[in-house]
Design a protein that fits this description.
Mean pLDDT: 81
Strand content: 5-15%
Number of strands: 9
Number of helices: 10
Structural class: alpha+beta
Oligomer: single chain
Strand order of the largest sheet: 3-4-9-5-6-7-8
Radius of gyration: 26 Å
Number of domains: 2
Amino acid sequence: MKKESQRILLIESLLALIAIFTFFIIKGFNMLVYLAILLIPLGLCIWLLGVRQREERASKDVILTIIIWIILYYLITYIIGYFIGFLRNGYSMTLKGILSNVISQSIFIVIIEIIRVSLAKKSEYFKKGLIITAIVLTAIEIVTKFSLGQVNSRLDFLDTLFTVILPILSKNAFLTYLGYKTSVGNNITYRLLMELPTYIIPIIPNLGDYLSNTILTVIPLLLLYYLNKVYFTKKEKIKNSRRDLKKRKLGALITVLLVVILSVMIALVSGVGRYLALTIGSGSMTGTIDKGDVVVLDKKDKKVSEDEIVAFRKEGVVLVHRVVDIKNIHGVRYYITKGDYNKNEDNWLVEDKDLVGKYKFKIKFIGWPTVKLNEWILGGD
């Protein structure tokens, strides 16, 4: 077992070196060169470890479940896109461009998943190897989508963390465990169905970076939880007793509730649909709405009267103040606003086109982490 652990660490170290070398040294990323380099750890995996299957666990039910989840993912996201709009795919839609992207990405997926499953299968008695495998393969994939020159500030770092690193890390954690429990075919199927349509379909739902990457982070984790509960738990732990049945039903109910709550939160924060959640980062409305509160706005309700609270854009910043007066100048409706805590009215006029939404209600203090994070990004105390 010690010899196999050493072999696993050798290959994982080589993968880490390849990621570091590509990240810091190679300028102008070239996928063909990268694929050629990855053939080295692939060959070592096949030679030193082999690609062992676990057919008894690689059931048709597992692959069918994966396919159903992926179909639901595309149905839901494209139904949302029907209501909020679509964007043109940024990848080349010419036949040559599609073939080039699909072939290179397919080869990359096959190489990485054979390496992953080879390492995962031999980590049965070296569980730390699973964690290391997930991390180094995350790094291997990150360097195909990200370069050091993109990070120039704290904001760039956080943007990269949420839009690049977290979705890839979540996916690799799921795939490493899936490869450990089942077969390489399941891993390849999941990745081909999730990733190749990106290079083929000419339009994509306009979900925004935050919502789309949150979904891509959450899906693998939920699927991992579901597969582990239904297929990977040892038989002696899933007896059909009434107590176990109640526990499974309760677990399923809690999972559904968490998914619903998370979906509502994502929809509110991202502004998909009618309502938008906004964290208050200043004290201009203290007493009515305090710093760190989260307000929920109705984006469709633009019938504003005096003494109502509205959110509006001013020089790229969204502010939440009260309307203290309304004027009609040359047929254009203007709002005079003021923060409840401020002594004076705002020294600007707000037009209808500047309105973001009308205040509906607030949730006390839950936005404090966001406020502190934003102050850290901007270099505040």
